[in-house]
Amino acid sequence: MIATESLSKRFPRVTALDRLSVAVGPGVTGLVGANGAGKSTLIKILLGLSPASEGRAEVLGLDVATKGPAIRERVGYMPEHDCLPPDVSATEFVVHMARMSGLPPTAARERTADTLRHVGLYEERYRPIGGYSTGMKQRVKLAQALVHDPQLVFLDEPTNGLDPVGRDEMLGLIRRIHTDFGISVLVTSHLLGELERTCDHVIVVDGGKLLRSSSTTDFTQITTTLAIEVTDTDDHPDGTRAVRDALHARGVDTHDNSGLPGAGHILLLTAPGEETYDLVRDVVAELGLGLVRMEQRRHHIAEVFRDSDEQRKEAVGHGG
Ligand SMILES: Nc1ncnc2c1ncn2[C@@H]1O[C@H](COP(=O)(O)OP(=O)(O)OP(=O)(O)O)[C@@H](O)[C@H]1O
């Protein structure tokens, strides 16, 4: 669907993309990175709206440098910021966008009605957009990206500004864009946790560089952090410490979480696979302690960055 090769974008004072090479296949793909990581810049280059400084990219086999209009015919785009006219209704706006994409008047009206229903806007669709909630505006932006039946859509931070319920509804809608209509999706977010649940594949960028690109299952396995809490006993008055030492003896290191609340009673460790769960269970049982909880922690993108920082430091350390 998308392929970039050593793609860079330099602004006078900042390098927004730094030799990014990445491939995106069909399905739902998440593009994760902190604010300023280069996500929106990448989308604009892929749409042929902004030229790259170096490198190349193709979308649906079309070169972004020369085939921008053809790409935009086949790709839908939901921009990040509020860009809706307040005085017109959702129906009027989406019909207008459908007509701009080349649909004849009747088809534009029919597709608009179907798409607005699909994104969950019903009677409200005849009211001016200015009176809509953030969630409703996000749905209008999504509808205009889908109305011309694209092969692929770019959704830039579609959950921004939504409360947890609105966020879950939006993520469900995004998943259905692919399952119900077969449209592939590239969706950006600064929260890895929400994309883990929605996407088949996740790409992480930081400072315009590719940090990681892998299927969501691999990703979760790589980054799963387990939180463990145990009871104390007469034999082990500090149960947490006993488990930590026993895990260390078996080659499993726990994270330094001394800065976090409740740190003294909670052990955090990276669990690369199922065997780590079994090991923790066995260690706790051998020590005769009670396991109060063992749960997977949801990740914030910062944890991925921290892990990669640690890897970088290790690499530097080993190198010299
Ligand atoms: N037109 C521009 N002129 C100068 N700098 C820009 C321009 N557009 C983006 N940048 C800079 O490029 C970097 C990447 O911005 P970009 O908007 O792509 O990030 P992002 O990952 O989409 O983050 P956000 O979600 O906050 O938009 C930032 O440092 C930003 O300030």
Automatic annotation (TrEMBL):
InterPro entries: AAA+_ATPase (IPR003593), ABC_transporter-like_ATP-bd (IPR003439), P-loop_NTPase (IPR027417). Keywords: ATP-binding, Nucleotide-binding, Transport. This is ABC transporter ATP-binding protein. The keyword Nucleotide-binding applies. SUPFAM superfamilies: P-loop containing nucleoside triphosphate hydrolases (SSF52540). SMART domains: AAA (SM00382). The lineage of its organism: Bacteria, Bacillati, Actinomycetota, Actinomycetes, Kitasatosporales. Gene3D superfamilies: P-loop containing nucleotide triphosphate hydrolases. Belongs to the ABC transporter superfamily.
